Amino acid sequence: xxxxxxxxxxxxxxxxxxxxxxxxxxxxxxxxxxAEKVSIQIINLARFIYVLGGVAExxxxxxxxxxxxKIDSSLVEKNQEFKRKTIQSIRDLRAGLAALEVEFxxxxxxxxxxxxxxxxxxxxxMAEDQAAAGKFVEAGRTLLLIIEKLSSTLAAMxxx
Length: 160
What we know:
The chain is an all-alpha fold.
């Protein structure tokens, strides 16, 4: 009879260790999935910035020439359309970044990395505002800062 409580205690400890191993495995899977999502956002931003970098100054130059009345109206129309598409692309990027930041805020296993990634939603909104104000080069610089944050986050995640 005296051994019964010991057996129950041993069984309880075994169950706790098993639960802890399962939690650790789940956390590793979540961290790995989170790192992959960070990587995807880095790729998305890098590709966008690559394209933006090639045309941002041109967009701003056409705007400047249009203000002076030194440019054909059809080119101004095309530039306006390109600007709308670029701003929409930044909005789309922002949506992905916001979802990523929310995931890091809500998943316990990702919270240790929140400090590194925190603010990317606000920074992407700032880039959108800059683009809407016709400051496409500045918007690109802001997006580069987000890539830096994402890269630091990914490095921290891979070091654990």
